[in-house]
Amino acid sequence: MSKLEIEKLHFAYDKATPVIKGIDLKLDNRKTAIIGQNGSGKTTFVKLLKGLLRPDSGRILLDGTDLATMTVAQIAKRIGLVFQNPDDQIFKSTVLDEVMVGPLNIGQSMDEARASSRAALARVQLAGVEQVNPYDLNLAQRKMVALASILAMDTPIVIFDEPTMGQDMAGKAIIKKVIEDLQAEGKAVLCILHDMDFAAAVFERVVVFSQGHLLLEGDAREVFSQKERLQQAYLDQPQAMKIAHALGIPGNLLTVEEVEDALARPPQLPK
Predict the structure, then answer these.
(1) Number of continuous H segments (helices) and E segments (strands) in the chain
(2) Sheet holding 20-27: strands in order across?
(3) In which band, very low, low, confident or very high, does the pLDDT at 27 lie, cut at 50, 70 and 90?
C-alpha cells in the first residue's frame, strides 16, 4: 500500500488567515474519514495532498518522496481525487468519453482506457449509459460518473470529497462497496464527510478537523464516543450511538445493526 505522511503542514490563501495549521498525520491501511464543519480546512487539505495547492511550510511525503518535487501529472498517477461537485470535473459530451479522460491522461492506451472505463462504470452501476450526455443524468448519477473516472485510473490512493451528498440509500450502498473493494485491493482510501452515520458505518479510522487543526484522530468508535470534544468542532455523534446512549446500551455502538443486535440479546441478570 502507498503511504502518505504529512509533517507540520501549514497553508494560507491569505497569509493573515491560516487555513491549515501544523497538521501531522499518517495515512495507513485503515479506511479513513476526515470530518469537520465547513471552513475547518478539510477540502484545502485534500487539495494539498493532490498537489492542486502547495504548502507554505511542512512536507507531504508519498512513499518517502516529497510532493513538492513532483508535478501535478506525476501525482495524478498515484492519487485520485473525486471532487465534491461532479460538474467541476465533467466536460465531455458522452459518459464513456468523460470517464476515459483520466486514464488517457496518465498514459493508458485507447483500448486500455476504454476497457478500464467500462469496468469502472459497471462498478458504480452505470453500465449501459456510455453514450449518454452526462448532463442528461441527475446529480447523483453524475457523481457516480466522476467516481468512475477516478476508479478507471486505478491509482493506489483514492480520495473522496463528500461522496454521499445527493445520494439515496442505494447510492450510498454502491459507494460503501466501492470503498470496501478498494481497501481489499490494497489501496489507501481517504474520505471527507459531513455524514456522520456513513462515516461510522464504513470507516475504521476518523480524523476530526477544527479551525485548521487536527482535533481528534483514531479508531472510529473511540473518536465518536468523545461527545464533548466533537461538540468543540460543532459535530454530532452518529444517530445510532445517540439512540444507544438514550436506551442505556453500553459500548458506544456505531450502527443501527449494532443497536438491533444489542436489543435482540436477552438482558443479563445481575450476579
Answers:
(1) 11, 10
(2) 20-27, 4-11, 57-62, 65-66
(3) confident
Instruction: Say how far residue 199 (Cα) sits from the centre of its chain.
Output: 9
Q: What is the pLDDT of residue 16?
A: 84
Segments forming the whole domain that contains residue 262? 236-266
Asked if 262 contacts 252 with a C-beta cutoff of 8 angstroms, the reply is: no
Burial of residue 223, with CB atoms counted within 10 A of its CB: 0-12 exposed, 13-18 middle, 19 or more buried = buried
Q: Rounded to an integer, what distance in angstroms lies between the CA atom of residue 90 and that of residue 269?
A: 60
In this structure, the answer to whether residues 13 and 48 fall within a common structural domain is yes
**Helical (H) or strand (E) element with 79:** strand 79-82
When pLDDT is averaged across residues 28-55 and rounded to a whole number, the result is 93
On whether both 185 and 105 belong to a single domain, the answer is yes
Question: What is the C-alpha separation between 27 and 189, in angstroms, rounded?
Answer: 9
Residues 223 and 258 in one domain: no
Judged against a pLDDT cut of 60, whether residue 162 lies above it is answered with yes
Q: Does position 271 have pLDDT exceeding 60, yes or no?
A: no
Q: How do residues 200-245 score in pLDDT, each as one tens digit? A: 999 999 999 999 999 999 999 999 999 999 999 999 999 999 999 9
| Whether 166 and 240 share a structural domain | no
Residue for cell digits 482535533? 215
Same domain, 212 and 240: no
Residue 271 in any domain: the answer is no
d(CA 151, CA 13): 30
Are 81 and 159 within 8 A, CB to CB?
Answer: yes
